[in-house]
Design brief:
It is a single chain. A hairpin with a 2-residue loop joins strand 9 and strand 10. It contains 13 helices and eleven strands. Helices cover 32% and strands 21% of the residues. The protein has 338 residues and is an alpha/beta fold. The structure holds iron/sulfur cluster (SF4). Iron/sulfur cluster binds next to loops.
């Protein structure tokens, strides 16, 4: 069976005056119809650059995909012509960006902008495109969609703008929907509504979703698989059950430990990962997480651990992640390196 999307050892680098930034360095994953992949990591971990690479939106120069491949339904996205990419983008693979205000054009009515995406790919008349926009606004839960389609973006609340962005992204029933931190700018109740809406749309259409987030909590209820990234590299990959209930990388443990718990007072439970993500110009040698890892050993600064996994398997890029290696909650913090 042909896979819907396969990312194989993707490497996207930026060539800057200060040096080469390996923003994505060896990322692989697969995605099938109806699946949701959560891509998790702190800012600068390469999540968004992975998404932009799939959409062929990396500005060249300074950026370039220097290795690996992206296969959509059997065809290499990297080898597509400009025309093929235009037809792919927004039509078969669509993206919802983090900040709807920067993605919606303030001088055009919301309905026109949603309709434009339909006209571009489906050769619809202006009236047909407007009717489709009204239908889509209704689908994403905007009340009085016919009237609201005539509003400008500034007349929409933050949550409504994000719904309008989702309407635009699903206008042509894409096979893959990439959502880059779609709920970060929204308050918690609206966040939950937007996630429910995406789940509902997925159930109806079978669209596969790549959900990019810095917050593991956001994807806990919706991801089938999880890819954890750090400093441009994949550090853990597996089914959501494996990553949430049997995480094998100390960075994933840190992300899980920093989630607030509703059953414990905030001051007793928040346990953030110490330190900051590294500068991408000077990524630490060996395991890039070693300056922040409470379990770092001498081997960690000398050798780079590589994530190895087969499709069905759960993999971790930690030297001590094997079956006889570290276990969350049992490993003793003991830094051999300073
Ligand atoms: Fe920590 Fe070493 Fe594992 Fe890296 S390889 S996560 S530094 S124990």
């Amino acid at each position: 069976m042909t896979r819907l999307l396969e990312v194989i050892d993707l490497q996207t680098h930026f060539f800057t005056r200060d040096g080469v930034v390996k923003a994505v360095d060896g990322v692989s994953f697969t995605l099938d119809k109806g699946e949701t992949l959560g891509v998790v990591g702190e800012s600068g971990s390469g999540k968004s650059v992975t998404a932009m690479s799939i959409m062929r939106l990396i500005p060249d120069p300074p950026g370039k995909v220097v290795g690996g491949d992206i296969i959509f339904k059997g065809d290499s996205v990297l080898e597509m012509t400009a025309q093929q990419v235009r037809s792919l983008r927004g039509n078969r693979i669509a993206m919802i960006f983090q900040d709807p205000m920067t993605s919606l054009n303030p001088v055009y009515r919301v309905g026109e902008q949603i309709g434009e995406s339909v006209r571009l790919h489906k050769n619809a008349s202006k009236q047909e495109a407007f009717e489709r926009a009204v239908e889509l606004l209704d689908l994403v839960g905007i009340p009085h969609p016919r009237e609201r389609a005539r509003d400008y973006p500034h007349q929409f609340s933050g949550g409504m703008r994000q719904r309008a962005m989702i309407a635009m992204a699903i206008a042509n029933q894409p096979k893959v929907l990439i959502a880059d931190e779609p709920t970060t700018a929204l308050d918690v109740t609206i966040q939950a509504q937007i996630l429910d809406l995406m789940n509902e749309l997925q159930d109806r259409t079978g669209t596969a979703i790549i959900m990019i987030t810095h917050d593991l909590g956001v994807i806990a209820d919706m991801a089938d698989k999880v890819l954890v990234m750090y400093a441009g590299r994949p550090v853990e990959y597996g089914s959501a059950a494996d990553v949430f209930y049997n995480p094998k990388h100390p960075y994933t443990w840190g992300l899980l430990d920093s989630l607030p718990r509703h059953d414990v007072a905030m001051k007793d439970t928040l346990n953030p990962i110490q330190g900051q993500p590294p500068s991408m110009i000077r990524v630490p040698e060996g395991c890039s997480f070693h300056p922040r890892c409470p379990y770092a050993r001498v081997k960690c600064i000398k050798e780079e651990p590589v994530l190895r996994h087969t499709e069905a398997e759960h993999g971790s890029a930690c030297h001590f992640a094997g079956d006889d290696g570290f276990v969350r909650g049992e490993a003793t913090a003991c830094r051999e390196v300073s």
